[in-house]
């Protein structure tokens, strides 16, 4: 008989951390590069209508890539919450913010 060491939640968390999140992050990087390349082309080809249109197209497709990745991330979050898997975050680390202590300012008289 095969003994399964990990629960379904742990397996999904590992798949998410090692496969899905890196793929989403890579797609965000690609979309950012395409968008910035479009901005560069648009600015560089300011005197050429064809180059400006090419830059606009790249910016549009970079923006579409952003929207698709936000949608994919949202769908994954909804599905994981629906089936009850907890702990699926972007970077699998607990993030807390502790504000610095406020110090009183002593003004000499």
Account of the protein in words:
With 109 residues, the chain is an all-alpha fold. The protein is 66% helix and 0% strand. The chain has helices at residues 8-44, 49-83. Helix 1 packs antiparallel against helix 2 (49-83). 4% of the residues are buried.
Task: Tell me the strand percentage band.
Answer: under 5%
What structural category do the secondary elements indicate? mainly alpha
Radius of gyration: 23 Å
Bulk shape: flat
Secondary structure tally: strands: 0
Outline the biggest β-sheet. none
Query: Share of helix among residues?
Result: 55-70%
N-to-C span: 81 Å
**What's the mean pLDDT score?**
79
User: Which series of helices and strands comes N to C?
Assistant: HH
The unreliable regions are none
Seen as an oligomer or otherwise, the chain set is single chain
Number of helices: 2
């Amino acid at each position: 008989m095969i003994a399964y060491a990990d629960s379904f939640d742990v397996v999904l968390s590992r798949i998410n951390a090692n496969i899905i999140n890196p793929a989403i992050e890579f797609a965000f990087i690609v979309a950012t590069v395409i968008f910035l390349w479009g901005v560069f082309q648009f600015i560089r080809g300011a005197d050429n209508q064809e180059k400006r249109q090419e830059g606009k197209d790249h910016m549009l497709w970079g923006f579409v890539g952003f929207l698709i990745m936000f949608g994919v991330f949202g769908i994954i979050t909804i599905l994981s919450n629906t089936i009850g898997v907890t702990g699926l975050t972007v970077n699998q680390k607990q993030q807390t913010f502790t504000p610095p202590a406020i110090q009183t300012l002593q003004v000499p008289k």
